[in-house]
Amino acid sequence: MTTVPASRTVSDRHRWRNILLTLLTYLIALAFLFPLVWMILNAFKTEAQAFATPPVFFFTPILDNFQRALPTYLPALRNSLIAALGSTLLAFILGLPAAFALAVYPTRRAQGVLTWMLSTKFMPAVGVIVPLFLLFRNLGLLDTLPGLILMYTTMNLPLVVWMMHSYMSEIPFAIYEAAKVDGASVAQEFFGIALPLSMPGIAATALLALIFAWNEVFFALNLTSADAAPLSVFIGEFKTSQGLFWAQLSAAATLTVLPVLVFGWIAQRQLVRGLSFGAVK
């Protein structure tokens, strides 16, 4: 009777465990990707095929749904790009100096300020929509791009301050002290030390702020109607009193998520690095 070496038994267990974990990873990825794949498939079907039961998996692709969506898609795309990029830029202009001050020159109220900023994210949007609507109406900001940029800036500012505060706090304070010994001013510490060492965090935070602004629906739906309507409002146009047009809605949704998917795919390395590594790693 032959005996199996203990090292071989342990190796077999590790191999089977790795195989099971790999299969589980693929199943989870498939569960997350299936709605997206199904939406893209429906975009190339007729309305009858999109509503068919059982579902139709083999069909002749058509582009009619995209042709119907494109005329109203381009103005909404322009509004989304302006609102997302403008609000992200403004949130960084306001948030980076605040994060730097809270991280490098904290006062005894710094933690309270950070907690207060984070608490604004806990507030349900529906609870503030009425005063916001009245404020925007009185200021003439309803259905305007400056109003949408201002709304998204206030929405993403806590995120920018919190994430950049975390990155800038990881920079060894000895670097700032050495710069002060060499005569560096506060502005030189900010532009010459904090910003260059926080670039991975800036890239990751910018990408998250862009995605949050791009996907925002509630405020866009209540504060815009025609002139400044972004893509999130554009998708809702395909739910009419005549019914829900699944194929056209899928085509519009595919066009809407496509820029974010492409941008996220291109920037995935920077995003993972920014979310995983610290400022000085």
TrEMBL record:
Membrane topology of the entry: Multi-pass membrane protein
Subcellular location(s) per record: Cell membrane
Keyword Cytoplasm belongs to the record: no
Gene Ontology CC terms, in alphabetical order: plasma membrane
Keywords, alphabetical: Cell membrane, Membrane, Transmembrane, Transmembrane helix, Transport
ABC transmembrane type-1 domain sequence ranges: 77-267
PROSITE patterns according to UniProt: ABC_TM1
GO biological process, one term: transmembrane transport
Family affiliation: Belongs to the binding-protein-dependent transport system permease family.
Name recorded for this polypeptide: Binding-protein-dependent transport system inner membrane protein
Lineage: Bacteria, Thermotogati, Deinococcota, Deinococci, Deinococcales
